[in-house]
Amino acid sequence: MSSPIPRSSTNQRLVLAIAVLASFVAFLDGTVVNVALPAIERELGGGLTTQQWVVDAYLITLGALILVAGSVSDAYGRMLVLRIGLIGFGIASIAIAAAPSPEFLIVARALQGAAGAFLVPSSLALLTSTFHGPAQARAIGTWTALTTGALIVGPVIGGVFTDYLSWRFAFLINVLPIALTFWLMARAKVRDLRRPDASIDWLGAILCTLGLGAMVFALIEQPHLGWASPAIWAPMTAGVLMFGAFLLRQRTVAEPILPLDLFRVRNFWTGNVATLFVYGALSLNGFVVAVYLQQGAGLTATLAGLASLPITILMVLLSSRAGALAGRWGPRLFMTVGPLLMGVASLLLLTVSPEFSYWWQVLPSMIVMGLGLSITVAPLTSAILGAIETERSGIASAVNNAVSRIAGLIAIALLATIIGGSLDLDGFHRAAIATAGLMIAGGIVSFLGIRNPAREVAPSES
Fold first, then answer.
1. How do residues 194-237 score in pLDDT, each as one tens digit?
2. Count of alpha carbons within 13 Å of 22, Cβ hemisphere only?
3. For the chain, how many helices (H) and strands (E)?
4. Cα–Cα distance between 224 and 320 in angstroms, integer?
5. Which of 69, 106, 175, 239 could form a disulfide with 214 if both were Cys (CB 3.0 to 4.6 A apart)?
């Protein structure tokens, strides 16, 4: 008879609460912003370009610095890095709420992304260093379930604040969980482990950030200035060169923030290519639907926030079951069918017409999208992390997280080109077709590239 699994101590429960709240802050902000974009544009101006930069400024620094966050956390201690990230995120949130101009807001969003890059990796590292064995699996499961709550409440709270107070207050939501996290950190007894020999590739992080930033600038501004303009081709060329230098550096530096040898593993590189397509499509869909439902269909921010709620509800209900089934049957089928379903969901948005009806034109798409996403996410994550040895799962997870952020970054940067410059009904339909194409590509890549791991044969079956 096996001994019962011990219950978590009070201190472990405090650590779990700290990790959940710190990550919740970063997830919450990502779900609030799309609903607030039309109100931001109405007050500060700048049109579609401002809306693109409000999203992408955050994703540039978040996607680039999340790779180096693990090294920083190891070198300086998880709790210290978590405190710095929380303080930076709080200050940036206040600056966003007080932004007097689009330019100020965009810079504040970039700083917020830089701070947010250290929250999720440090939170997970704190959990893995505090919990062990079966307790660690339970803690990470609880962390995943509770942080998913940000996906549910974020758009709704953001919409309510935008409609009845101001979009500025939607970004101040972060202050309360940050304050509560600091209070819990003062009560928790955590020995902050540090590695004095840890190496941080700051030059690589700078090359990655500047390279991505320059390329995204060119992609966003190109529809206005054209490729012939030096203001476009010069930063694009510089961005490509800097990002190329970053990749070359990762081949020679002692402790790379992007270990390129990981991409020799078939399921890892294939899974990340599928991630690039699927998460690029999800970012495009989330932006376009939230903005068009307000600016094109005339819904309030609150109703626009509620529109995607079926997706999140289905994810909460079905994701763990899909993960269990993928563990039994392998991830390939789920990673193929899920994106294909989401491609169908995107094409259902072509039914949106000037005589708008959420119930008949949008809700069916949201339901099918939720089913497809529920089928995809857990198998995708397990396929990628399961392909890499356990001791390198942290960096493998960070790489996959960065790929998903960069996918969103590129999709939003190309938005004006995709929709033809204006998010009217025709532009909305073009975005739906582009989203479907990306989703279908993700399904095809998974079908052709993913290999199911060999099933272990139980003794009774041999």
1. 666 667 788 988 898 888 888 888 888 888 788 889 988 999 99
2. 35
3. 19, 0
4. 45
5. 239
